[in-house]
Amino acid sequence: MIYFKHRHSLRPNFSCIIEFREEGKVNNTLVTQVVEKLSRLPASLQHKVLEFVETLTIPVQHGNPGSQLLRFAGGIPLDDLQLMRLAIETACEQVDVNEW
Question: Please, are residues 91 and 83 in contact by the beta-carbon 8 Å criterion?
Fold first, then answer.
């Protein structure tokens, strides 16, 4: 698990405290490398990196158990389901090698 803690927002002078832990160990080499690369970025990109790192610490939300979804069973007419299946099989199972 990775945790980042900061006291101030990242600025070009990096007047912040970053604590990096992986399985309870501080990895100073990795922190140094990250801070070095961040220091070369403009402030707007530093904030984007911070926003991304903060998303890594957000707990994963789990969906509803199937038993709670059973009330929706049979809600879509069979004809519509067959049209949806045909559309998926026709369009979604195709690979366009020139797409990229």
Answer: no
